[in-house]
Amino acid sequence: MKWLVRAWLSVNVLVLAQAILARETPSSGGELAMLMYLLNMPSSVLTGIGLNTLGTVNNPSHAIHMLLIWMPFFTLGAIQWLLLGWLIRKISRS
What we know:
The chain has helices at 2-21, 28-39, 43-54, 62-93. It contains 4 helices and no strands.
């Protein structure tokens, strides 16, 4: 399980780094959101609904804009992995 969480963490960080390093394109925020949506299923459904409710972020800095898109997906994805690990430990003790 640890290697799977480490792989997930590495891919999430690489997706953020790629989004920040790639110069701003008209759809860069949408591409990042879609990648994070796929990487963090099923918790990303709620994240996507929340971000759509809040609307777009108008920030002049590309890196900050990408971080603000990435952070909610990553946070809920991390919580999802923690809950999954806790559930597996709880079941294995029973």
